[in-house]
């Protein structure tokens, strides 16, 4: 069992090591163009984000444990409003940049960065939330130190959405001028997501075996890497939180990676101290694909949400 668990731990992290080596062969602009072309093709009907690629700049910054994170931003003339995009597990800044770029039409600058052990950022065990939340804090510190900021809107996808939801319950958002969040396909319980990941790597695992392996994985994080990946869960933090910025929760009933019921549960937990959250559960759409499959409705709802908060 221990040998199997060690190997699965390495696989979860190695996948991103391999992708980093591949992504390092390309400039961010080239990768963004590839994502842009793919999105245009999938949505069709003449869809075009109209990106001025000359405005895209690459940056890097250090996070709390001295790891270097890579980022990319798009400056919209003299705007002081920023979208900060948070990618999902095994994804990268280029993907979240393209997925969130539609908000630039409202005059926002767009900033996306790679979490640890993703894209061009330094290797480090992926924690699916705990250390990634710290990465977000340092990304927002970097943004506020280098630009004049009036307003920040966070938009997160899957793991990025989970990070957003954790961050929203901290006391950092006022300092960082975060006013709104858009949570696309989040999850609530880390153990359930780990079981889903494990089943994708080892098809022979049944539910009982997965539970045992997840328990062992958590022990590896705690004992070997000194990381408590269950630290300050959303349920625990929600019970003591008194104030947060509004969040628009988006999910699909067809999502088999993360459950739409998790978005509903977080929405209900927050309803005690936030009265202007929103939620939309689509009947159809794969994991983090509702922007593609319901583009016009998705875009209009998010625009409406963002416009109402000055």
TrEMBL record:
Segments traversing the membrane: none
Organism of origin: Spiroplasma litorale
Pfam families: Abhydrolase_1 (PF00561)
Entry keywords, A to Z: Hydrolase
Top-level lineage group: Bacteria
Span of domain AB hydrolase-1: 82-225
Hydrolase is among the record's keywords: yes
SUPFAM superfamilies according to UniProt: alpha/beta-Hydrolases (SSF53474)
Gene Ontology molecular function terms on file: hydrolase activity
Protein known as: Hydrolase
InterPro entries: AB_hydrolase_1, AB_hydrolase_fold, DNA-binding_regulatory
């Amino acid at each position: 069992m221990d040998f199997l668990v060690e190997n699965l731990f390495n696989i979860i992290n190695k996948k991103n090591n391999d992708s980093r080596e591949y992504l390092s062969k390309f400039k961010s602009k080239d990768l963004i163009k590839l994502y842009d072309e793919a999105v245009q093709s999938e949505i069709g009907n003449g869809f075009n984000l109209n990106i001025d690629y000359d405005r895209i700049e690459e940056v890097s910054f250090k996070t709390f444990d001295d790891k270097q994170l890579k980022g990319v931003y798009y400056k919209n003339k003299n705007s002081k409003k920023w979208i900060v995009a948070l990618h999902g597990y095994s994804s990268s800044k280029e993907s979240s940049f393209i997925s969130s770029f539609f908000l630039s039409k409202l005059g926002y600058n767009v900033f996306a960065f790679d979490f640890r052990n993703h894209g061009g950022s330094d290797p480090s065990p992926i924690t699916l939330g705990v250390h990634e939340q710290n990465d977000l804090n340092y990304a927002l510190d970097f943004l506020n130190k280098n630009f004049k900021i009036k307003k920040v809107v966070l938009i997160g996808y899957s793991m990025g959405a989970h990070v957003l939801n954790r961050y929203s319950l901290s006391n950092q958002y006022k300092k960082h001028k975060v006013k709104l969040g858009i949570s696309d396909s989040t999850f609530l319980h880390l153990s359930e997501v780990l079981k889903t990941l494990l089943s994708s790597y080892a098809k022979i695992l049944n539910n009982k075996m997965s539970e045992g392996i997840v328990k062992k994985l958590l022990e590896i994080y705690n004992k070997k890497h000194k990381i408590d990946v269950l630290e300050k869960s959303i349920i625990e933090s929600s019970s003591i939180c008194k104030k947060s910025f509004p969040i628009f929760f988006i999910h699909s009933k067809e999502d088999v990676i993360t459950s739409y019921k998790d978005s509903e549960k977080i929405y209900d937990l927050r309803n005690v101290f936030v009265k202007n959250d929103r939620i939309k559960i689509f009947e159809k759409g794969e994991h983090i694909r509702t922007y593609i499959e319901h583009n016009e409705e998705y875009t209009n709802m998010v625009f409406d949400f963002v416009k109402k908060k000055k």
